[in-house]
Write a structure and sequence with these properties.
alpha/beta, 14% helix, 584 residues, 32 strands, 8-stranded parallel beta sheet
């Protein structure tokens, strides 16, 4: 079985001990990762006769690192249970039980009392369990999970019951950190901020749960612990903080300001949380050459990065350690990329935190699902079956989860593009979904349909901001004379150069790449040609490109790194040198 170097560092009794929500940090919290009891039972059963053994949370039951490595399937349910001692002071507080992500439907009990149900495999959720806690320290949690995989309409990304080609092993159950925190009766539930570039301000939007009349929020922006500026606003109102001589965040200079958010009742401090912010602006505008470009902080910037699936041979959806999670971004940066397209998967909050700190731009896909419609790669072509006829339930599942994802992750300044659809997978009502995306977050660009099934408005204006072609292996671009007047033109996927390396593949033979090679020298020579061809498209109006892909994944061997991250197929320094010409 293929393992990453970090698998041996994993402590199964206390995996992923890091604070899971770096965008809003509280002191009083408790990590519940570790050894839980589990059972796989027919749908509709309950585990009253006992559990089958132990599972390491938060690794999906199908993964090696879970200690189980069994398939659940749509006809069964996965049950979890653990007892623990409450490690936070609950006197005068509310106790919140958090799940980073559970795929797909989760029902939760505390001390044998049902506290709630959640559907969605990629968004965090929490329950107030204060009224369900037993006296004393000892408590019990039980969780039931059902995941129909690709037999259901829900967003699932690359998971299928029968993995092959570009489709991978199912992921069922808890796959991100489970944790508790203690909060006051009125508390700061979330916060995000947007940059008002023209007015040198950062506008904060703190959300106060159970807000009381007269409560105020004070937001302070700091550098090296020194307060630069503050603003006090009524609870649940925007707080614009004006900055003198602000330092902009960019891949070359990823400045993050420290943020303190305090909740007051009169002069009484109810609570304080720590956060951070970046002063950065992303928009579409015409460059000096007359082509539409993506402008970061008022300057046109060519964006180039890998398609990043975020899969692990030992943990599937879940990196073995935080160091492993960080590794992929660090190496991508060292290779000279300035952007990552996070492909039909959403990562834990800490991944985006690392991207923020390192200065890595991110295009965020919506995980796909409910597939079956036709894919038309040619722009300006209409044909039957391009839109998926989803049921009202399927449409609502998509919209609900997309809304949750955007609201949760629009905090992170590294994210500069939202991508609701990829290659027609489950694509429906594109204009409506683009408008929903714009309503939820107007501060970023929208790549409405990566790879095809483009929906046009009157004339040749695209719905969304970006026209995104896919072509393997060679670079191409949409014709700017036809499509470029009001649209950013990008190459959303290309490359896919494959090189299986013995001892570092998911299976021994029948591995797959878009164009395969037998030596690293052959691979490097072909990649160098791709870079020369790509660089010639940029003056013609190409604004961004995405190479497939960061790592091998299962039987796909077209990664720059092997699936176990032990071998980089083209030297990092040589990649960086090849990429520099793209940014000039």
């Amino acid at each position: 079985m293929l393992k990453t170097p970090w698998a041996e560092e994993l402590n199964p009794d206390a995996p992923l001990p890091e604070y899971p929500r770096p965008q809003l940090v509280r002191e009083a919290w408790q990590n519940l990762n570790g050894q839980w009891d589990f059972a796989i039972l027919p749908k509709g059963s309950s585990p009253e006769t006992g559990f089958a053994g132990k599972i390491t949370v938060p690794f999906a039951v199908e993964s090696l690192l879970s200690g189980v490595q069994k398939t659940v399937g749509p006809d069964n349910e996965l049950w979890y249970e653990r007892s623990f001692d409450l490690g936070v002071d609950r006197k005068g507080k509310r106790v919140m039980l958090h799940f980073g992500a559970v795929d797909w439907e989760a029902e939760v009990w505390v001390n044998d009392k049902q506290v709630g149900k959640h559907q969605g495999g990629f968004d965090a959720f929490a329950f107030d369990i204060t009224e369900f806690l037993a006296k004393g320290k000892s408590q019990k949690i039980r969780v039931r999970v059902w995941d129909p995989s690709d037999s259901g309409p829900q967003p699932r990304g690359k998971q299928v019951k029968d993995p092959k080609g570009i489709w991978y092993t199912p992921v069922t159950g808890i796959w991100q950190t489970v944790w508790l925190e203690a909060v006051p009766e009125s508390y700061i539930a979330s916060s995000y901020s947007n940059t008002d570039w023209e007015n040198s301000s950062q506008i904060f939007y703190p959300e106060i749960k159970n807000a009381q009349a007269g409560q105020e929020v004070e937001v302070s922006l700091m550098e090296a612990g020194q307060v630069l500026a503050s603003f006090k606003a009524a609870a649940n109102q925007p707080a614009p903080v004006k900055i003198s001589n602000p330092k902009a965040w960019s891949p070359d200079s990823p400045t993050l300001y420290e943020v303190s958010i305090k909740l007051f009742q009169g002069k009484k401090l109810i609570e304080e949380v720590k956060s951070y912010a970046a002063y950065r602006d992303i928009r579409m505008a015409k460059g000096a050459d007359g082509h539409q470009r993506m402008f970061l902080n008022g300057k046109a910037l060519f964006q180039y990065g890998p398609l990043d699936q975020g899969w692990w041979p030992d943990g599937l959806y879940t990196a073995p350690t935080d160091e492993a999670l960080l590794f992929d971004i660090v190496k991508t940066k060292e290779m000279g990329f300035n952007m990552i397209r996070k492909h039909v998967k959403v990562e834990p909050a800490r991944w985006y935190y690392h991207a923020d700190k390192l200065g890595m731009l991110v295009w965020q896909d919506m995980p796909s699902g409910d597939m079956g419609n036709r894919w038309e790669v040619r722009p300006g072509i209409i044909r039957e079956g391009m839109n998926k006829a989803r049921t009202p339930e399927s449409e609502e599942i998509f919209k609900t989860e997309w809304e949750e994802i955007i609201n949760e992750f629009k905090f992170f300044p590294s994210i500069v593009v939202w991508v609701p659809f990829n290659e027609a997978w489950g694509q429906f009502k594109t204009t409506e979904i683009v408008q929903l995306t714009r309503d939820l977050d107007s501060s970023r660009l929208i790549n409405s349909a990566s790879g095809g099934n483009f929906e046009m408005q009157q004339g040749s204006t695209l719905v969304g901001d970006i026209m995104d072609l896919h072509n393997y292996p060679d670079p191409v671009m949409p014709d700017p004379a036809i499509f470029g007047e009001k649209t950013v033109l990008v190459l959303g996927e290309f490359g896919g150069l494959g090189l299986p390396i013995e001892g570092h593949t998911w299976q021994l033979k029948d591995n797959w790449g878009y164009q395969s090679f037998t030596t690293m020298d052959e691979l490097k020579a072909r990649y160098a040609i791709l870079m020369e061809d790509l660089s010639e498209l940029i003056p013609l109006g190409l604004a961004a490109a995405i190479y497939t892909q960061t790592t091998d994944v299962e039987i796909e061997t077209n990664g720059i790194m092997t699936y176990d991250r032990k071998i980089i197929k083209i030297p990092v320094e040589e990649l960086s040198k090849m990429h520099q010409k793209l940014y000039k």
